Amino acid sequence: MLPKEAWVRTRVPLGAPGEPFSWSRAFGREAPRVLDLGCGNGYWMIHSGLARPEVDHLGVELVPPALRLGSLRAGQRGLSHVKFAWGDASEFVVSRCPPSSVDEVHLYHPQPYYDAQGHARRQLTPEVQGAIHRVLKPGGLFVFQTDNPAYMSYARRTLPALFEFCERFAPWPDLPAGRTLREIVARSQGLEIFRAESRPLSLSEALRESRVSALPSPDFDANKPAGRRPGKSARKT
Ligand SMILES: C[S@@+](CC[C@H](N)C(=O)[O-])C[C@H]1O[C@@H](n2cnc3c(N)ncnc32)[C@H](O)[C@@H]1O
Questions:
Q1: How remote is the C-alpha of 57 from its chain's centroid?
Q2: Residue 57 lies in a domain
Q3: How many domains is the chain partitioned into structurally?
Q4: Which of 24, 41, 167, 234 is least surrounded by CB atoms within 10 angstroms?
Q5: How many Å apart are CA 212 and CA 128, to the nearest integer?
Q6: Taking the model in full, what pTM does it have?
Q7: Range of the domain at 80
Q8: Do 234 and 192 touch, CB atoms closer than 8 A?
Q9: Cα(20)–Cα(223) distance, integer angstroms
Q10: What SS3 class is residue 98?
């Protein structure tokens, strides 16, 4: 942690609903951009920001205490390129984030919502998948990770319509003990972690929209027990 006089502000407003977000105004520079949808306490963003000072990081989170903690920790480390915004990450990526403006989108452990009433609040909807495809630059990266097998089955069924979908069967080398707080907790409970790295397929806007409209809604049963990974024996990493 830096001495207090070196702390920096790391909160940023998303702006008015529907108004395009200006990355260059928020960060005061042009740089590669990383977006974390539902960043929680920002554990991964802070580590990534420490390792990659040349990259701007924006975390969008709905729960203020988690956001405040992440923002404080980043500020105490002088990470002015790691910023936190309060708001609905789905609304942000669908309505405010400009097209082809982001190098990486990360979605770690979205809540599975075990009751049917919560299904509508799930983050990885067809609309959000289409929006992630739209905001990523060509060749960009979408990282999805969950410890819920049914959520991963849904991702396997839907993401390949828009992305070159590639599962990762080992912990991340940058943070082998876990990239996020939820990953660390889930592994301590013996849960299996499912990770995927996806790259946007080259699609016209019209083709993207028609594929999005054909995708099923995420109304899967999150209580389903773990299934076997395709072509892999069950492992807990
Ligand atoms: C299980 S936690 C995971 C947090 C973090 N990504 C991690 O892996 O540790 C899910 C997080 O997503 C946030 N969240 C859920 N829906 C959201 C939304 N629509 N917009 C922003 N954040 C959301 C929750 O507040 C919570 O912090």
A1: 11
A2: yes
A3: 1
A4: 234
A5: 9
A6: 0.95
A7: 4-19+28-214
A8: yes
A9: 37
A10: coil
* CATH code for position 92: 3.40.50.150
Would residue 124 count as lying in a domain? yes
Q: Which amino acid, one-letter code, is at 129?
A: Q
- What is the residue-averaged pLDDT of the chain? 94
Residue 97: is it exposed, middle or buried by C-beta count within 10 angstroms (0-12/13-18/19+)?
A: buried
Residue 169 token pair? 């069967």
Note whether residue 60 is domain-resident: yes
The three-state (H, E, C) secondary structure of 103-142, written as one string? EEEEEECCCCCCCHHHHHHCCCCHHHHHHHHHHEEEEEEE
Q: Whose CA is nearest to atom 12 of ligand 1?
A: 38
In this structure, the residue with its CA closest to atom 26 of ligand 1 is 40
Closest ligand 1 atom to Cα of 145: 8
Q: What is the dihedral of CA 152, 153, 155, 157, to 10 degrees?
A: 170
- CB within 6 Å of ligand 1 — which residues? 38-40, 60-63, 66, 88-90, 108-111, 123, 180-183
Question: Which stretch of DSSP H or E encloses residue 84?
Answer: strand 82-86
Q: What is the pLDDT of residues 83-121, one digit of tens each?
A: 999 999 999 999 999 999 999 999 999 999 999 999 999
Is 109 within a domain?
yes
How confident is residue 234, by pLDDT bands cut at 50, 70 and 90? very low
